[in-house]
Amino acid sequence: MSPYWASINEPWFNNPVARPKTITDERLLAAAAEVIGRKGPGFTVADVAERAGVSVGTVAGRFGSKSGLLQALTRQTMDGNVRRMHAAAAAARDPAEGLRAALLTWFEGMTDPAEAQNHLAQLGVDLIDPELRALLAELYAATERTVVELTRPVDLPHGPPPERAARVLTGLLYGVSMDWSVRPRGELADRLAEDVDAVLDAWKGR
């Protein structure tokens, strides 16, 4: 049986853009993330195809649908977040610096409030979809587990147990990023660093 898009005869589908010989999932997902940042939840598979320089059929054939594309992007985000956190922690001089560095990898490169707002808008739509909502829960759980792991070796005499500390720290970063997206003042990276330092310094007794 032919795939469902084989019978589509629309101008937007039969995209004449030249296709590169090798098209990776990473290339398509990077295009999707960029398009979401520019257009928010109103983006289409055709927008992603245009940004990636491929046909709509290529994107649809790889991911099946817009929901499938978003699911793949969420899985990639989950894996990437955990890898970056571990890499940042491993490169630090001690566990405390490693925890701080890992936390500050979360929103690296996020400098445009409008882009952040579009990603937040997409998040709101994702929460309506049961499959995407379940994947987001997995993403948050994986991130929190990593923070717990990185918090355990850190000496925080005035802090809560690692599990609670991880909840506080993850909630802090999500909250600061959301606040900055709607009330941008200064750079997000600076805001995150200031607030993370305030919490960690208090837990260290400084």
TrEMBL record:
Q: What is this protein called?
A: TetR family transcriptional regulator
Which Pfam family is an annotated match for this chain, by its short name? TetR_N
Q: Where's DNA bound on this chain? A: 44-63
Which stretches make up the HTH tetR-type domain?
Answer: 22-81
Q: Which InterPro entries match?
A: Homeodomain-like_sf, HTH-type_TetR-like_transc_reg, HTH_TetR, MftR_C, Tet_transcr_reg_TetR-rel_C_sf
What UniProt keywords are attached to this protein's entry?
DNA-binding, Transcription, Transcription regulation
User: What's the domain of life for this entry?
Assistant: Bacteria
Classification of source organism: Bacteria, Bacillati, Actinomycetota, Actinomycetes, Pseudonocardiales
